[in-house]
Amino acid sequence: MTKTLNIFRVVAFLEGLSYILLLFVAVPLKYFYGDPQYVKLLGMPHGLLFIAYIVMAIWFWNDFKWSKRTLYIVLLAAIIPFGTFYIDKKYLKHDN
């Protein structure tokens, strides 16, 4: 489970990073400078990482024995900027 947990942590980090880059770099460039190139470049990878994050969160729901409330918090974090970083620190990072 440690290997899959590490994969989930990487996916969570990349999803959060791609979301931040999309919101705070690509979208302003698109609307202020009329350059949609970066939205197109970041949009697809972010979408795939978002789906992977959601699927893995549901998958780990049983493994971690999370309550439904915790699962909803983990899922909600995917749509809040910096949310996945909080989830990694609070729920995924375990001192072994």
- Mean residue pLDDT: 92
Number of discrete helical segments: 4
Q: What's the total number of strands?
A: 0
* Molecular shape: elongated
Protein model, in words:
The chain has 96 residues and is mainly alpha-helical. The mean pLDDT is 92. The chain has helices spanning 2-33, 37-63, 68-76, 83-92. It starts with a helix and ends with a helix. It contains 4 helices and no strands. 81% of the residues lie in helices and 0% in strands.
Task: Provide a concise account of the structure shown.
The chain has 96 residues and is mostly helical.
Would you spell out the secondary-structure blueprint of this structure?
Layout: H1 2-33, H2 37-63, H3 68-76, H4 83-92
